[in-house]
Amino acid sequence: MRTITVSTARKTFLAAQGFADPRPSGVPSRRHLKRVLSRVQLLQLDSVNVAVRAHYMPVFSRLGAYEPELLDNAAWTHSARQPRLLVETWAHEASLLPIEDWPLLRSRAKRDGWWRHYRPLIEKSPGLVDEILSVVKELGPIGAGGIERAVEADVQRRGPGSWWERSEVKRVCEYLFGTGRLTTGTRRSFERLYDLTERVVPPEILSRTVSAEEGARELIERSARALGVATETDLRDYYRLGPAPARQAVAELVESGVLEPVSVAGWKATAYRHVEARTPRAVTGRALLCPFDPLIWERARTERLFGFHYRIEIYVPEPKRVYGYYVFPFLLDGELVARVDLKADRADGVLRVQGAFAEDGADVARLLPELAGELRNMAEWLGLSGVAVGRRGDLAPALARLVR
Q1: Helix residue ranges per DSSP H, 228-363
Q2: What is the largest CA-CA distance in the chain?
Q3: Cα distance between residue 289 and residue 378, in whole Å
């Protein structure tokens, strides 16, 4: 087993994630979006909108300014000329992923999520499942509130008998989404509008049956492509796979030559390098990373590769926050050199930097103009008129002067 340095592992990871690819010289197109998806494999969704929705930002981080409708159309619309590229399901968390990967996530390689806790409700009220599916079939795509009202109206029309609370309807919708019987037909102001999966996923994809073993192999191979060099735990976490099928898949991929076991200096666990991973001599360029970017979402891995201790502080009481509510690490030439607490103040039309902090040892003279430039790019992309810097953090005074 050969040994590689952390620097080599880091550059391999950055290249795998698309940060060694040049940004488009013109307006990013569907072709460029497909290239990003071939790197990251999936985009995590999250409801926080203090700066920008989580699924939009990783594309901006890799391509620069693009039209959000490019991603919206790929995820939630379908036409003969432009078929739907993405489907929404539970992968790492709630995520958008290539529609052809749907059968892999429905195999038993994927461990059950939080929705398993709703099984007693399903067993107690099987009629509610049929009722919800009937409503969605008739009225979908439809939001949870619309389903609740339709179910309630149906029960009232039938007269005395079974009665279900609205909270139960919502939980069953989430269970059916988690198990794949429902998916997102489209979104309306980010509200999920449920639809029957067979009306969203093409029949030739939906009919594909994948065993747990095959599903695990294909998903671990995708994880390895996205991560470049990774431990078995890293590979498993990307799609939240069960330990046993993941370990078996790693062993089979090693045997077939797809994964090469390597030792990363300073890492306790064996790592695995995808046979097609490349390691550039250097990674240049800059990017702001949202908390749910796949480059940094696994915090222990981020610390191992970048020496960057990062925790999201949304749920930390404000007086106890170290850096801020919604903090974006700043990537410059392959290193995480700073972090900024961002808020899109749409009322005032500015991107607010509520805190700006340099990492220990960072070249502040180099990073400041690069950070200022990327913040201006992000503000323009979001349709905001400029950047406003607050007082928190050692970078704040100089950064405020640069963005004026």
Answers
A1: 232-239, 243-255, 299-306
A2: 74
A3: 11
Rounded CA gap, 119 and 381, in Å? 43
Tens-place pLDDT, residues 26-42: 999 999 999 999 999 99
How far apart, in Å, are the Cα atoms of 210 and each of 103, 206, 321, 394?
A: 6, 10, 45, 53
Non-local (6+) Cβ contacts of 222 within 8 A are 41, 101, 238, 239
Q: Which residues contact 216 (CB under 8 A, 6 or more apart)?
A: 107, 109, 241, 245, 246, 248, 249
Count CB-CB contacts under 10 A for residue 79. 8
Helix/strand/coil percentages in the chain, nearest 5: 45, 20, 35
List strands edge to edge, sheet with 259-264: 2-4, 259-264, 271-274, 229-231
Q: What global pTM score does this model have?
A: 0.94
Residue with tokens 């610390």, as numbered in its chain: 303
Q: The tokens 């071939």 sit on which residue?
A: 38
Classify residue 318 by burial, with Cβ atoms within 10 Å: 0-12, 13-18, 19+.
Answer: exposed
Preceding omega of 141 cis (within 30 degrees of 0) = yes
Cβ pair 367, 332 in contact under 8 A: yes
Q: Mind listing the pLDDT tens digit for each residue in 52-99?
A: 999 999 999 999 999 999 999 999 999 889 999 999 999 999 999 999
Query: How far apart (Å, rounded) are the C-alpha atoms in residues 297 and 42?
Result: 12
Tell me the C-alpha distance between 310 and 341, whole Å: 13
360, two tokens: 């220990």
Contact 212, 109 (CB under 8 A): yes
Q: Tell me how crowded residue 345 is: count the other CB atoms within 10 A of its CB.
A: 15
CB of 267 within 8 A of CB of 3? no
Of 201, 242, 295, nearest to 108 by C-alpha is: 242
Query: pLDDT per residue over 6-24, tens digit each?
Result: 999 999 999 999 999 999 9
State how far the alpha carbon of 200 is from the alpha carbons of 30, 91, 137, 184, 194, in Å. 20, 17, 12, 8, 10
For residues 183 and 95, give the distance between their C-alpha atoms in angstroms, rounded to a whole number: 11
Write out 45-110 in H/E/C secondary structure: CCCCCCCCCCCCHHHHHHHCCCCHHHHHHHHHCCCCCCCCCEEEEECCCEEEEEHHHHHHHCCCCE
- Give yes or no for a contact between 84 and 46, defined as CB atoms under 8 angstroms apart: no
Residue 197 neighbours by CB under 8 Å, 6+ apart: 180, 181, 182, 183, 206
